[in-house]
Amino acid sequence: MNKPQILQVGPYPEWDEAPLTASFEVHRYFEAADKAGFLASVGPNVKAIATRGELGASRAMIEACPALELVSVYGVGFDAVDLAACRERGIRVTNTPDVLTSDVADLGIAMMLCQSRGLVGAEGWVRDGSWVEKGLYPLKRRVWGRSAGVLGLGRIGYEVAKRLQGFDMRIAYSDVAPKDFASDWEYIADPVALASRSDFLFVTLAASPVTRHIVGREVIAALGGEGMLINISRASNVDEEALLTALESGALGSAALDVFEGEPKLDPRFLALDNVLLQPHHASGTIETRKAMGKLVRDNLTAHFSGQPLLTPVL
Ligand code: 8YV
To answer: Do 146 and 14 sit in the same domain of this protein?
Structure first.
C-alpha cells in the first residue's frame, strides 16, 4: 500500500526523521528553494501537514493542498495554523499538549531566577577578571517571598504557580474566570491590577486574536520600574513596541523573553539593552520533551490514517 503523503514544514530532531519517513512519504518543504513551485507540485497529493508550533500552516499552504485532511503540530500552540481555513474544509488539527508543560514552566522559573540574580552578568564578572580587579559583584534583587502574577492559569501557568509556591511567593493569577483548583492563589481578573501588585509577571496564555497585545502599555506601566515581565508564551501576547520603549526608559525594570515578533530575527533594539534576558524559543527544548512531542505528532498522524480517534485534537 502507498504510504500517505505528508508535507513537513520545518526540520525535526534527527531521531524523528527515520520513523516519519518509515510510515509516510515526506515532502520536506523547508528544503525547497522555490517554495511556491514545490507546493504547486506536491500539494495536490498531500494528505497531512506536519509542522511546528511557531511555523504553523498558512491559508496559502492549506489551499495548495486540496486533499489535506490533518495538520499535526509539534507544539502546544496552534496560533500559527490558519484555523478558519481548516474549519472551512473540515481539516482536523492536533497539537502536543501536556508532554511539554513542566519543561516550559521550568524554563520560566529559570529565567526569573537568572534575570533577578544577574547570572549572565555574574558569569562575565568571573570570566573577564572583574571579580579580581573590581571585587564583589553588584547586588541584585531577591526572588523568594516576593509577589508573582501568572497571566493565564492553563496547564503551563498552573505548573509555574506551583513552582513559585516553593519560593514562598505571594501568588495571584488572571484568567477568564477563577479556577476551582487554585484556591491558594488570589484571582485578579484585570491584567493591569494583576501587574500592579506583582514583582514578577509571567505570561502563560495560549495566544489567539483575543489575547493579542494583552500585555500592552498599561500592564507594562503597572508592573513598573522594579517589575519583571517573563514571557514563555507567544510574542503576540505582548505589545513589543511598548515593551521596548518601557525597557529603554526604565519604566519597566526588566524582562526575560523566550519569544519574539518575527523570530528568529529580533528587533535590534533588544540587543542594545542590558535589562533583558533573551532566549531562543526553547522552553520545550529538552531531549525528553522533544522526543515525546515528536512521538505524539506521529501518533496523531498514524491514528488518523488508520481510522482511530486522534490523541490530542484541537479541531
Ligand atoms: C515549539 C512551541 O513548537 O509548544 C509550542 O507551542 O512553540 C514550541 O514547543 C518548539 O520550539 C519546536 O519548534
So the answer is: no
Would you say the CB of residue 76 lies under 6 angstroms from ligand 1?
Answer: yes
Residue-wise pLDDT tens digits, 18-75: 999 999 999 999 999 999 999 999 999 999 999 999 999 999 999 999 999 999 999 9
Atom 5, ligand 1: residue with shortest CA distance: 75
The answer to whether residue 269 is catalytic is no
User: What gap in Å lies between CA 213 and CA 62, rounded to an integer?
Assistant: 27
pTM for this model (two decimals) = 0.97
Give the total number of structural domains in the chain: 2
Does ligand 1 have an atom closer than 6 angstroms to the CB of 78?
no
283 within some domain: no
DSSP-derived letter for residue 253 is: -
Shared domain check, 113 and 262: yes
Answer yes or no: is the C-beta of 149 below 6 A from any ligand 1 atom.
no
Which CATH number goes with the domain that contains 23?
Answer: 3.40.50.720
Same domain, 265 and 296: no
Domain residues for the domain of 237 are: 101-278
Verify whether residue 146 is a known catalytic residue: no
- Do 90 and 40 belong to one domain? yes
Q: Are 80 and 103 in contact (CB under 8 A)?
A: no
In a domain, residue 312? The reply is: no
CB 99 within 8 A of CB 293: yes
**Residues 293 and 188 reside in one and the same domain:** no
Q: pLDDT band at residue 10, thresholds of 50, 70 and 90?
A: very high
Distances, alpha carbon 307 to alpha carbons 66, 95, 211, in Å: 20, 18, 35
* Cα–Cα–Cα angle for 168, 172, 174, rounded to 5 degrees: 155
Residue 281 falls in the annotated catalytic set = yes
Given the residues 281, 290, 298, 304, the one annotated as active site: 281
226 C-alpha vs ligand 1 centroid, how far in Å?
Answer: 30
Instruction: Say how far apart CA 253 and CA 274 lie, in whole Å.
Output: 11
CA of 96, closest atom in ligand 1: 4
Measured in residues, the chain has a length of: 315
